[in-house]
Every structure is written in C-alpha cells, then in structure tokens.
C-alpha cells in the first residue's frame, strides 16, 4: 500500500525537506508519494523584506520564486502540489482538510504529516506570505506606495525586522532629508536580549547618524485613519500619552503561528505546536513539526534550517520503523543586523561583530543571490546539497 507523506508549507523549513526526501527516498521507492499543500505558488525570502519595502530598491523577483519549475520535474504518481491552506487537522483519523485556492474543500488522508506552516506577521503586514502570492504582492505594493507618497513614515516595533526596516528607510529618506522617519520601540534600546547591550547601542547610534527619530520606551496603543493620514496614539513607560500623525505606518510588532487548523491540545499557550526533541508533535509520532510553527526553538531561519537538516537525515530510518534520533538544539548565537545600505552590526556568541563583516555577509544583497537555490531546496543557509 502507498504511504503518503503530506507536507504543509513550502517555506524555508519545508523547501530542503521536500527536495531531499523526494530525491533520496520517494523517487527510488515504489511505495511512497508526497503531497505538498501551500496557498502560495511561490517561495518567499522574508530576510530581504526590510529592503523590499523601500520603493525601487529590490525587485519582487529577488524575493519570490515560483515553485513550479522545481515541482513540475516530479512524476505525477509520486508528487502532487495542492494550492490551498490547511484548515482542519484530524490527527486521529489522519486527515487534513484543505481550503483550496479555487474555493473548494478537499480532505487529504496522510500516513506521515510534516507541518511547516510558519508564522504570519501581525497587522496583515507582508513581512511573510499573506495567503496567496497575489495577496502578498498587493499588500507590498500598497505599503511601497504609502511610503513613496508619505512625508513622514513611522516604523513601530523594536525587534530585528523593525530595526532593519528603520535602517533601510532611514538611509533612503531621513539621511537625505527627503522624509521624516520615526522609530518607536518599547525598551531603552532597539533590539532585545539575547542581543547584548553593545550591539543594541551600536544599532541606536547608526540609526541616529541617519537622522531617524528614535522614540524609545513607547508603545502604539491605537491606530486610526483621519483626513490628514494615520493617527497613532502612543503611550510611554510612565503612562504619558501623545499622538503622532503619519502617512505610512510600518508595523513590525510581531508574528503569530499559522496553527488555526491544529487541535488546541496540540498547542502551547502561545499557539505554537508542542514539538518534542525528536521534532514530532507531542503524542503523534507520525506528525513532524518544523521551523517557526514549533515551540522548541525561536522563529529564526537558522533553527528552521537545522531542524530541516535533522529531519532529512532521520526520515528514512523513521520510515523503516526505527526510533527517531534526538535533535540537538541549535545553540549558536548569531545575529546579523543591517543598518541602512552601508552599515550593519551583529553578534556571534558574546562577541560583537564588525559592521563591515555583516554588511559584506548580509547587507549588500540580503543573501538574495542564494534565493533561487534555497527555494528549490538545493541549498540552505549553510549547506549545499549534492545534486542528484
Ligand atoms: C523581515 C524578516 C527578516 C528575517 N530575517 C532573518 C534573519 O536575518 N535571520 C534569521 O535567522 N531569520 C530571519 N527571519 C526569520 C525567518 O524568516 C523564519 O525563521 C523562517 O522564514 C521560518 O521558516 P518556516 O518555513 O518555518 O516558515 P515560513 O517561512 O513562514 O513558511 C511558511 C510556509 O507555510 C505556508 N503556509 C502558511 N499557512 C499555511 C496553511 N494553513 N496551510 C499550508 N501552508 C501554509 C506558507 O505559504 C509558507 O510556504 C526573518 C523574518 C522576517 C519576517
């Protein structure tokens, strides 16, 4: 009887697993096949989005790669791409209901399920895919158009995405006095632990050098549209409130896991899937969980990658009925933070990295030169697979 492996998602975590498992395990077998479910016809490279939102800086084809050229090479009896979003998982009956992009519903039975559905950015922001590629592109175009027309731009949220985006917008507009760029974050310094103080201070200094107006220790409590633009209500750590009007509001206030289809008892209190140290869903050994959607490690490409590499190695043994080996947590501390188009900062372990080093590694191209290979599953951030 055929064993069906269903993969939910085709992002950073899923892409190498799909290709390597297809090539090494499914194509040589007569008993296995794979179904990939994703609402988007394209892979997305979120890492470059802080530059993409700046109009004219980076074309969409540098960050969105069609899946068809890779997937169309696989024989139809071994591989199927289903365009739609998982909307109900029955882990006992081993089925997944999919809301197809065409509007219909389809129930897909599985023997093994790999959930790699990632996260969605809050406030419907296009940092990650927003459903279909068309929806994501439209949202990005709207944001770019708001930014192009704006006199003032507000970036809110002091994490990696917010800091990098404030840097990209600051370089393009504030430094050159073309537009005012505000950056609101709710602590003393941009970024957050485990990023250490000297790296965070450098981010602050570089943003100030570009004339970005920093508003620390402050939270956006309300966003309303008015005739003059978008009115933001702000409150600071002492409880004082004020308002700020802008024509472009760039929210980077966090992300939520794409787990609405997962039964509640499989989720932790933040709605991430409870993931064991063998990368399985707690209580369901035939369900694997990879990348941002799982609760074992944080939402970082480096974790998505190391979990994918582990599963690629371990899956053949699991399919032979053997025990899954333990996954070793990725404990490497590495951050690369771009600050405009010529400066950067970063951290490896507890060592602050030189600006030029991170600029060279990440800031020049946001690693887009590897995008098509990563989308095709031929490469991850650190590993290039042998081509078979
Ligand atoms: C702006 C930005 C910059 C970043 N920069 C860095 C960085 O410099 N370094 C770093 O380590 N990390 C960075 N990250 C984090 C990194 O992008 C994520 O950790 C990585 O994308 C996680 O990969 P994933 O495959 O788990 O999820 P995702 O990339 O979110 O992919 C999820 C996939 O699931 C699909 N999907 C969603 N819902 C469903 C559903 N219901 N059914 C089926 N499919 C579904 C999506 O279409 C997509 O294909 C950054 C993130 C952002 C947003």
From TrEMBL:
Superkingdom of source: Eukaryota
Name of the protein this chain belongs to: FAD/NAD(P)-binding domain-containing protein
Alphabetized PANTHER family for the sequence: APOPTOSIS-INDUCING FACTOR 1, FERROPTOSIS SUPPRESSOR PROTEIN 1
GO cellular component: cytoplasm
GO molecular function: electron-transferring-flavoprotein dehydrogenase activity; flavin adenine dinucleotide binding
Family: Belongs to the FAD-dependent oxidoreductase family.
UniProt entry keywords in alphabetical sequence: FAD, Flavoprotein, Oxidoreductase
Residue intervals of the FAD/NAD(P)-binding domain: 4-307
